[in-house]
Amino acid sequence: MNYLKDSVTGIDRPIQALQTFLYSQVKALWNLSDTSFNMFGRAYRNQTEDGYVPEFFTGGLDYNDLFFDDKVSATAFFGVAEKQTYASGSATADVFLIFMVNLDKIKTTGKRLDEEARNDIEILCSQQRNSFTMVGFDTGLDSVFKEYTGWKKKDGIKYRDQHPYHCFRINFKLLYNIKKSI
Asked: What is the pTM of this model?
């Protein structure tokens, strides 16, 4: 399911535009349904007893974390660096997109096709779109979740990047006009 915000302002506007584009492209590329692919916009970086975790706001006072969900084939969300720069009406932000996938459900070969899955998304993101410029990617849980220390529990690791699961991160520079983001 594509979890869109009802009201988009500021940085959420270009994020939701890219989110909408990628959702339909990834579904078609990996032959996924609305029930097998969850895509979220900008996640909040909220503190828990285990550290910071990515969460989406569900309403009221409720948030849900955005880690591996073994009920779906893929989950993706955007994160934004806490510091942005501003000059002449435009803001520049470091934005990243995290994908967590079950390789057996998107590639269906029984082989670890992590590079192939990541390359599919890199190709979709490599062309500048909605003022996003891809600047690199990360693999490995420590790098992918570097802003979210809560992916590790005090009693041990919650998740592993082992077959069939894989996670990766695409990094962007986003330049957007704050006046056109209202």
From this structure: 0.92
Neighbouring-strand partners of residue 3: 40
**Alpha helix stretches (DSSP H) within the chain:** 12-30, 103-106, 114-126, 141-144
**Token pair listed for 99:** 């994908």
Tell me phi and psi for residue 131, to 5 degrees: 70, 15
Phi and psi for 141 in degrees, rounded to 5? -55, -40
The gap from C-alpha 71 to its chain's centroid, in whole angstroms, comes to 17
Q: How many contiguous H segments (helices) and E segments (strands) does the chain have?
A: 4, 12
Q: Which residues pair with 91 in a beta bridge?
A: 86, 176
Query: Which CATH topology does 2-177 take?
Result: Alpha-Beta Plaits (3.30.70)
**What is the signed CA dihedral for 31, 34, 36, 40, rounded to 10 degrees?**
110
Residues β-bridged to residue 79: 96
Can you say how many angstroms the Cα of residue 127 is from the centroid of all Cα atoms in its chain? Answer: 17
* Distance set, CA 73 to CA 34, 35, 57, 84, 100 (Å): 10, 9, 22, 33, 8
Give me the residue spans of the domains in the chain. Answer: 2-177
Taking the chain (182 residues) in consecutive chunks of 10 residues, what is each chunk's mean pLDDT? 90 95 97 96 91 88 86 96 90 96 85 91 95 96 90 62 90 88 52
